[in-house]
Design brief:
Strand 1 and strand 2 form a beta hairpin. The protein has a two-stranded antiparallel ribbon. It folds into 2 domains: about 50 residues, no CATH class; about 70 residues, no CATH class. The chain is globular, with a radius of gyration of 18 Å. The chain contains 3 helices and 4 strands. With about 120 residues, the protein is α+β, with helices and mostly antiparallel strands.
């Protein structure tokens, strides 16, 4: 995590200092117990960084051009490629916002979340 502390003057490019730290395994993965993870997530207390484990080095299927499951671009971990659409196509449109597909495990949300979510190895 990077923490920027700006000086009191109006120029945004001037900083007093930059703090960089390494996250602990608990901050990255969160609680190990699935029931505890679900309880915290449902209560809005999700404070860990990782959305899932990347298990394969593959990126995209060369025939379908879709991200490989559990790969470096996995939609289940990082979010959907298309706005408001799961990987398998069962849920399409904004009315299914926040639904997690029971077939593919992808949350129906904006594709912009791919820029913010992280996975762990």
């Amino acid at each position: 995590m990077i923490d920027f502390r700006s000086s009191r003057d109006s120029r945004a490019s001037t900083f007093d200092y930059i703090q960089i730290r390494i996250a602990s395994p608990e901050e990255m993965r969160g609680p190990r117990d699935p029931k505890e993870r679900e309880r915290l997530a449902m209560g809005g207390l999700r404070n860990w960084w990782s959305w899932g484990e990347v298990l394969k080095p593959e990126t995209i299927n060369y025939r379908s051009f879709k991200p490989e499951k559990d790969g470096l671009f996995c939609e289940r971990i990082f979010g959907p490629v298309k706005d408001w659409e799961c990987h398998c196509g069962k849920y399409k449109r904004i009315r299914y916002r926040g639904v997690i597909c029971d077939r593919c495990g992808v949350e129906v949300t904006l594709s912009r979340v791919r820029r913010e979510r992280m996975g762990h190895i």
